[in-house]
Amino acid sequence: MDPTKSEMSLAEMDYKGAFSKGQTLYGRVLWNPEQNLNAAYKLQLEKVYLCTGRDGHVPFFDPTGTVYNEGPQYGCIQPNKHLKHRFLLLDRNQPEVTDKYFHDVPFDAHFASELSDFQSVSSMPGVDGFTLKVDALYKVEAGHQWYLQVIYVIGPESMAGPRVQRSLARRWKRGRRDLVDSDGRLMLDDSLIYDNEGDQIKNGTNMKSLLLEREEAALAASLSQTGASLGSAFAAVTLLLLLLS
Predict the structure, then answer these.
(1) How far apart are the C-alpha atoms of 236 and 62, rounded to whole Å?
(2) 11-38 pLDDT tens trace
(3) Which of 81-85, 175-179, 229-233 reaches the highest mean pLDDT?
(4) What is the DSSP string of 220-234?
(5) In 53-200, where does DSSP find H-type helix?
(6) What is the rounded distance in angstroms from the CA atom of residue 106 to the CA atom of residue 95?
(7) Buried/exposed code over 95-121 (b: 16+ C-beta within 10 A; e: otherwise)
(8) Which are the contacts of 108, defined by CB distance < 8 A and separation ≥ 6?
(9) CA 188, CA 61: separation in Å to the nearest integer?
């Protein structure tokens, strides 16, 4: 599957199989192509998280606690006792704080814009992506489901680049690897939770599970999207997983 091709349908792009050792995953984030926003706005990934729960816990993103009525939930973003492992794979503004290895096995994660073969993806209107080698995920015993969570920003095309970066730096008060303050409270931009009309820059998040080859076939049902895109007033955003090799 070639993620640099823009003419593929969503069904063609979304890999439904399991990932095996030695393979590379490509995550493609894009807004609904039916929305006519291409000329005006740009989508850019800011952070990519990876996590797995304890005792069958399924992380999900419900920051107001009103969707599932289980109180505020933040998926992989916030450390909590129900997560067995949690990693920050990519951070566009603080790459030095990301997790590079798990049990000495590299994640080898990259934004599409960092790889010459995929730079054309990040230049597509409303599209961005990242790559990840899955070998490190096999360091957890069988039966654990892995989840990817992305944080992205949507803003006017004219604001792409350093101006967006400075805006995000102000809003998220960067200076640590986690989006929590010294008291353990989550510091999320309001537009991740609420739809703030009039904001030029919107933040959003999306989650998806991924299946490893060794897992039971029954887990295939969990490949459906586990979290809705929140915080964007413009369009629904989809996280797709593609198999590169």
Answers:
(1) 16
(2) 656 777 889 999 999 998 887 655 555 5
(3) 81-85
(4) GGGGSEEEEEES-SS
(5) 119-122, 162-172
(6) 15
(7) eeebbeebeeeebebbbbbeeeebeeb
(8) 24, 131, 132, 133
(9) 12
Q: How far apart are the first and last CA of the chain?
A: 9
Measured in degrees and rounded to the nearest 5, phi and psi for residue 158 equal -70, -15
| Spatial distance between the Cα atoms of 124 and 37, rounded to a whole number of angstroms | 12
Domains of the chain: which residue ranges? 15-243
How many angstroms separate the CA atoms of 176 and 174, rounded? 6
pLDDT of residue 221: 36
Cβ pair 50, 131 in contact under 8 A: no
- Cross-strand pairs, 180: 186
For the chain, what's the residue count? Answer: 245
Amino acid letter at 44? Q
- Separation between Cα atoms, residue 59 and residue 70, nearest integer Å: 12
Q: Where are the alpha helices (DSSP H) in 103-229?
A: 119-122, 162-172
The candidate with the shortest Cα–Cα distance to 230, out of 205, 207, 209, is 205
Tokens, residue 202: 């919107």
Residues contacting residue 8 through CB under 8 Å, at least 6 positions apart = 1
**Which 3 state secondary structure label does DSSP give 105?**
strand
pTM to 2 decimals?
Answer: 0.79
Contact predicate 156/40, CB 8 Å: yes
Amino acid identity of 161?
G
